[in-house]
Amino acid sequence: MKTDTNRAIGRDPAFPALSDREIRCLQLVAEGMRSDEAANVLALSNNEVNQALIGAQEKLEASNLMHAVSLAMLIGMIDHADPYQPK
Q1: 33 and which of 22, 23, 28, 83 could share a cystine (Cβ 3.0–4.6 Å)?
Q2: pTM of the model
Q3: In the CATH hierarchy, which top-level class contains the domain 18-74?
């Protein structure tokens, strides 16, 4: 499945809203965490984190998890700033 670029970067608000849990899980994955590490940080089960990531992937119509993270960054749902970069 190919993502429509205009839609992916927010020119068409057709993506369903992600839940706070889905956004937080995507953010932690974007920061390099595995789902079990994210589960530990969020005090959730690994299954709950995986379900949130699957839900986000489906809502964003992403072909895989990294695609979902990329789309979430493009549309501004998660922060793409490098936390280790000096300001």
Answers
A1: 28
A2: 0.76
A3: mainly alpha
Q: Is residue 10 left, alpha or beta, with left meaning phi > 0 and alpha meaning psi from -120 to 50? A: left
Nearest-angstrom CA–CA distance, 87 and 82: 10
Show the tokens assigned to 7. 């839609």
**Nearest CA-CA partner of 57 in 13, 86, 22, 20:** 22
Domain layout of the chain by residue ranges: 18-74
What is the number of residues in the chain?
87
Q: What is the pLDDT of residues 25-43, one digit of tens each?
A: 999 999 999 999 999 999 9
